[in-house]
Design brief:
- The complex is a heterodimer of chains A (241) and B (200).
- Helices cover 50% and strands 22% of the residues of chain A.
- Chain A is of the alpha+beta class and 241 residues long.
- Chain A has an eight-stranded antiparallel sheet.
- In chain A, a hairpin with a 2-residue loop joins strand 2 and strand 3.
- In chain A, 22% of the residues are buried.
- Chain B has 200 residues and is mainly α.
- Chain B is built from eleven helices and no strands.
- Chain B is elongated, with a radius of gyration of 21 Å.
- The interface between A and B is large, with 40 and 55 residues.
Chain lengths: 241, 200
Amino acid sequence: MSDPIEFHAFVDGELSTSQVAEMEALIESSPIASREIQAIRQLKEFVWTKSSQVDAKDEWKSCVLRLNEIDKARRVEFVVGRFAPALCGIFFLVIVAGGLVSRRHDSNYASPLHPNLARFYGGLNAPKSPVDGNKEIWLKNLINQSWLSTPDHPQFRGGFSYEMDGVPVRRVQVRDGAGDVTVLFIQRHIEFEGMTPMDTHPGFMAGRVNNMNCVARSENVNTVAVIADRPYEDLVSVLSH
Amino acid sequence: MGWNGWVGRIPRPMLFGKRDKRESFERQAEKVFPSVLGTALRLTRSREDAEDLAQEAIVRAYDAYERFDGLNFKAWMLRIVTNLYINRYRQRQRGPMLGSLEEEGAIEPVSSETELPDRLLFDNVVGSEIEEALWKVPEDFRMAVILSDIEGLSYQEIADATNVPIGTVRSRLARGRSMLRRALEGYALKEGYLKKGTSE
């Protein structure tokens, strides 16, 4: 064994027992090997004892601060990870519950059963389609049949169809001897908010919309409302036709 | 109470399930940190780079602490810092690089051919001069000498830290020591600690 690498391994204690025995025999017999081993030992010890120790106190403090930041970030992540879904669920339920309560109690919201008449009358932003074709013929017949018996000779002036809150509405403009009358045919039993039952005419409701009088009546699944700038009694008369 | 205050009140065991992890890591890391920083300094030769490297190694080690096998924490830390250095700093370091001839040529003996007395050499050279001499040794050889002779790692631990076979570690260590001895001799002769051809 005369490989220089083995001398270093011997000094470093990295040889097996048998290799160590071989090396010791070589050192005994060879002054060159002995000198080399001695030189390696001295150099190793010299480097070990003379290499300067690094003062690392300040740098270690920086590391501790960095570890603190990491721990803090992990705690935040933990809280967010564990509790955020539950908090989100609670918030979602609160929002849904609030929406339901608002839907039941908010006076500005048009419930299908108690909607605001003005919204149905105006149609707001609902897309409107003109009443024409079969619908127009049907409405004209309906109006003529009901009003023919009156001396006013009503005239069909046109109309629109639209939907409010999912309810189909036909708004028809009619003119008779006393002026214009708006008739709303609504395919749902509706009690308009703000309208009050008429004591003199059971089943009729009276109210105001757009500074005009309105009388409405619901039967089965339909509601008809007439709106005009004329007394309630006259509107009851028109609606009775 | 602010968000941080609220988070701060959550007990650590509830968060990590291992209350001692941080304390255990900190206790062990603080002991070996001078070695980590010293190795980083000897590899980069820049205090600023060495601090960054050492701190990054600590953070990496903390993240991976659960994977530590529990055997030799110092060797594990030095492995992390060495690997970080190889991956990040090596390409832009300015010291002598490994040459193919140096890796393949014959290994010179450590003992002086000129019979220069070791005692004179070793008695006069101081720590800072060793650091200078070390820096003259090509990087891969220097790394082996640092990890073995300064940090006391075994061949296997050096092989793990530097990602080379154990035979390469043995070879690099033998060559690195020989080069270091020559560098020290040159330094001693230059400074007048030794006179060539003279005896003690």
